[in-house]
Amino acid sequence: MTKTWASLLQPAPLPDYFYQALPSDQHIRILTLQPSTVKNAPLTGTLETISLKDPSFNYSAISYVWGSPADRAQFTCDGGRLTITQSLADGLSRMRKPNEPVRLWADQVCINQHDLAERSKQVKLMNQIYRNAAQVLVWLGRDDDGVASRAFSKIRYLNTVFSNKSQYERFLKAYSEDLDKQPRASWAPLTKLTQLPWFHRIWIVQEIGTPSTALLRWGESEIDWEMLSFVVGILNEKFHRLRMRNHIGTPNIRYLYKRFIEPEEDFDESHNRGSFIYELHRARHMLAEDPRDHVYAFLGHFSLQIATPALKSLVADYSRSVEDIFCDVAARSLIGASNLLLLSTVRNPESKDGTVARPLPSWVPDWRLGPHHIAGSPQTHHLAAGDTKPDLWIDEEQYVLHIKGLQVDTITTCSFEMYGSAFNFPRSDVEVQVTAVEKLWTSICKFVLPISLDRQYHQSSDSAFFAMAQTLSNACHGMDRLRKYISIHPDEWISHAVAYLVRASGQESTSIGLDILALNEQTPGDAFKWGHEATLVSRHKRFAITSNGYFVSGPKALQEGDVVVVLYGGKTPFILRPRTEDVGSGWYILGECYVHGLMSGEVFTKWDLIEEEFSIY
């Protein structure tokens, strides 16, 4: 009888919350979170339906990391039970006010996650939801290590320094020229901040990239998004060595700033944010719980306004497979395109037997693969195929790309894969190291030391050293973004490469010719500029030479026998590999490449090449 009475005293379990269907594709649900003066009190609230066409409705939108699906919490909504992740529960507890309700939009609660059709429709509205919000409230997570206040204090201090000319100049000297003398401990909280999972979640590109103001909360601490963006922008642009020394990931944060805000001026695909495909590529370092979101998270981006007609009509559909979506996006972006940026974003790994190993056709980018530098980005001035336009068609049953172009050359010698440390400087003045430039000069180019400027490159006026330096740095296209590229004389580029070689090898090195040492004295360059650019451009790539003696920077899967082609409409040449399944059965594409001396349409004037149609599987 005791057990019976005890069971009668227990509250009845709450029924599961039942979502009512939304009345139209322009309606969303808003959560009203009830107040509590008790920090860990159960979360309760109500849902109401509103139209996005009603500008008078005031709410804040939450941006957060979902967290582990296994770590769950309960939320009571309109008397029903909703199961949410603990991460969102922590965020809602932090956003809750003690004495008044708060109106919020949080995807986990406001979208019926079990209804694929509703999820697909609501994805189209995400940009509008965050754009219309009175404020974006970012939940960075709990501050279990107690470093949030120190990290944000550091940001506020740097904001003051960077806003004052004299303070900034003193800081610049201390953390550039005298960096090795500076203690590291004070930077540890900033390192921790930039490593937080929120900064790597793909949906936040849209959530934080709108004009809405944003406030970031980490534990009990908070900071303004504009201030954080300003500080990391300066660190990112001016303090590369400081960032590297302390593992401060500012590029990931700076990348997020205003990513979804349409430019006021007219724009085309050459604009920094004007290409939908380039936006997908730029976000490859971001993480997605659902791989389909590598595409769907950008369906609200303004670049779709000028995309191909087929790409404009793309809609989210979570019933489709990842591979189907990636193939569809690739086909839509190529049909009717004015360029081959899509093919520049291809990154194909290599299996142990030398074949292309991936679940997709080789010409379809796999957005799940990590980031890599592309030479044919919208901002570069390369025109390997001149003013030609893509000439292609797609067999959509077999997903074979048939595209016209010219077969130019064959790879005969390949270097080692270059890693992120390939162009590092020695750790001390007494450390002796053979630089990557020296290794390539002797083992790949088969030139004798010392490295000098008197060896000519491929019947041109360029020296072989200049050609190598440009090949390894994508012709220095990203080195100075504050000036127009065509306004900078090539002598400036070579001065930076020379400065790097002297700094990396040492003034007393017998590997450097007297003419290079003299040039370094006459026209001092910035060694860090060239070293940094070569590191970004050449990471996980190979340097190679063709049968005609051209210098190539190509994908890490590159090997002897691969073919250099120029495809109509391409900014860069591309690397193809014959399929070995059957003789004459088509090609695989490994990716784009930089070929010094063939980046400005020279293939149409140097040789009388025969047009071919390449079938790429």
TrEMBL record:
InterPro entries: HET, HetReg/Transcr_Mod. It comes from the Eukaryota. Pfam families: HET, Het-6_barrel. Residues 59-207 form the Heterokaryon incompatibility domain. PANTHER family: ANKYRIN REPEAT DOMAIN-CONTAINING PROTEIN 39 HOMOLOG-RELATED, HETEROKARYON INCOMPATIBILITY DOMAIN-CONTAINING PROTEIN. This is Heterokaryon incompatibility domain-containing protein. The lineage of its organism: Eukaryota, Fungi, Dikarya, Ascomycota, Pezizomycotina.
